User: What shape does this take?
Amino acid sequence: MFGSAGNPLDVAALQALCAALGGLPQDVDAAVRIDRIRVLEQVKGAVAAAQARETAAFAAAQRAEQAAAGIPAQRVGRGVAGQVGLARRISAHAAARYTGWASILTRELPGTFAALAAGQTSEQRALLVVKETVFLSRAHRAMVDAEVAPRLSGWGDRAVEAAVRSLAYRLDPAGFVTRAGAAVADRRISLRPAPEVMCRLTALLPAAQGVAAYAALCREADSRVGAGDGRGRGQVMADTLVERVTGQASAADVPVEISLTITDTALFGGSGGTTDTDTDTDTGGGVEEPAYLDGYGPIPAELARRLIVEAGETVPRWLRRLYVHPGSGALIGMESRRRCFTPAQRRFVRLRDRTCRTPWCDAPIRHIDHVTPYQDGGATHIDNAQGYCAACNHAKQAPGWTTTVTSTSPAGHRVLITTPTGRHYPSTAPPPP
Assistant: This one.
């Protein structure tokens, strides 16, 4: 099953290995289980090393093929990460980062790669070595690898990160300082959903600015709590951040647009029956339908009602209705003869697709583009439109990629993605309630 130098594992053998691991006998004692856990951790490392090697080889071959086909140098490599992402079931952005790391790990960090292949360290720790040395010269990277690799088996994540970072600074202090200055250009804000209809607003800032902002929020919280504010310190800091960023007098008074995909009865107080608060189901025979908060995702209908009804009289609230076909449940759209989608069409596609439609991506939509390109006869119609992140939209423009609308039926808007290797990946828009 495990193959040899002359008989390497093929895809079928790897699938058989997966099946064998899933069928491990369970009538064993605790000592056997702990031994299995240890060995399986070693297997994970070996598998991660094999995957990195395959990824690096695939990327190199694809780039060589594209260059040989006359693809302009600045476009060579386009679409490679997209294929890796689909195969690994991750976003194209994450796949692009991983593909670069895999190339460095397999070709320029032989000691670290060997430790991973032997199961002596984890993929996370091996990639930490890559990330902390990615800006070093090849010679300096080799020096770090030689010093760190023999000790990886005894280190945790923080120890690996600290040791490699320290070595990198010693070898190239000027470059380290230069990179720190250039990193200011990467400052940004991101928003991610969190459980219980919360979200995480994250700021990547220069250290001095981040410390100053945090200190200001701390001082304000200490002042208000000391004056008798009934909120907790963390609550005051969070509310103050919202108030100062939005310019509102109170954090609760922030204007919001709710793009609702619920029935009128749900909006005005239930889906046809009395809501059972213990089960969140509706005693009239149905399940209470959710609302969709643009930029965040689904939220309970009850919370949507509160956002609309409980707002102060001076606080703007917008309610945008989306209609569905009474028989099929499909969202109703619009058509245009123009090359570019109208603002209304773009808004509709964003609400229909919600996030990038490439499987496993989930990144925010940045581009609304034709599935069948306009120059190939594709219509500027919402049935031929799809939401993409920037990376996935660029990937599908690489040679060998095709996207085809396969269904606009009540079952949902469906598109089939075909990659240059002939692999097919279906993409279906999330269903309305």
Observations:
- The radius of gyration is 27 Å.
- Residues 1-7, 271-285, 333-337 have pLDDT under 50 and may be disordered.
- The CA atoms of residues 81 and 97 lie 8 Å apart.
